[in-house]
Specification:
Chain lengths: 192, 255
Amino acid sequence: MVKELLIILISSSLVNNVVLSQFLGLCPFLGVSKKTNTAAGMGVAVIFVITLASAVAGVIYKFVLEKLGITYLQTIVFILVIAALVQFVEMFLKKFMPSLYQALGVYLPLITTNCAVLGIALTNVQKKYGILTGIVNGFATAVGFTVSIIILAGIREKMEYNDIPESFKGMPIVLVTAGLMAIAFCGFSGLL
Amino acid sequence: MTNNSKSDSSMERLYNGLVKENPTFVLMLGMCPTLAVTTSAMNGLGMGLTTMVVLALSNMIISLLRNIVPDKVRIPAFIVVIASFVTMVELLLEGFIPALYDALGLYIPLIVVNCIILGRAESYASKNPVIPSLFDGIGMGLGFSFALTCIGAVRELIGAGEIFGFHIMPDAYVPCAIFIMAPGAFFVLAALTAIQNKIRMNGEKKGRDMSKIQSGCNEDCMNCADKGCSHRFYGASDGAGSKNETVKAGGKERE
């Protein structure tokens, strides 16, 4: 059991990296990676939301959708649950943990339609993961996201001072960087 | 987005989606599926057409509901409509075109969070009559399909020497397999955005309005003035009427 979870942990965070090999959560990956500290904040918020969302989605799938035999409604149910959950988390943090809210609050609205969150909930179902395995998978995937967004932000900070061809400034050079990172992450496929 | 009769004619809507506001080549919207499923021209075309069906039908229904749905809950309502169509399309694909269903896999349900669809619902279908909204969806969908097919064809050509499965390159050509793997997607998109930047710079030199290029989702979310962005949709529940102006202003500010 532990070994199985460990394998999921490594494969979801490094080998099948959510951004660099599955292209989920690309918008925040490109949009919030200008500075390392905002990237880290976004990463932590994503870990928090995805772990929570995969837990809630797993419970709902097992105890509601499967019980009632309406698993074909999973996409609709998951997206609504995730949207409601993020809003609820935001309200909860605002009321009870103001310090945490100040650190993560700005990122939460950016996460709702992040396709990684829905993607993980659906992957957990597709791969027939149990609730615990699903949570571990969600956590690992989010860690993979955080690692890659922080690396990208670090590279972008350095790139500020480089002499980039005029038409490659902005998006193109970031995408080239992401491509090179994707090649580097391909190296992890030998791990398992 | 002026609502004069000219901009609402069906042909104009199709032209707008295919050329003037092409979601991929001009606006840079919906990047996740663009990168993920363009490993071959066929997959790109399949994904594009699937998205087009969902986009056209959801635009139509949302336009029908535009006077009934209260403003505060419109975004969840849109999402339910979109998700229902996505589920239907997913089941139909699974039943009738299983090969495509297997090739696209997880990315079919993820059409729900494709920002093109919610973006069109929000900025066009929720404000305009049914027929123009339908054609707006078809036009945008065709533009998206066209773009995905092109990107898929380029990647397939470089990565496997084929287009739509037919050998194009001479036998001496050694396929550069990285282009059909994940990194290749980033490189092709980097080249595409570089071309866009070049065109925009040339156009601005000649004094043309190039503000539409890359005005979709890009660059810097933290300093983005666009409160109406569909990526932060529920936070922006105030003032739907001013939405369009906000989007436009945001787009200009980012340029």
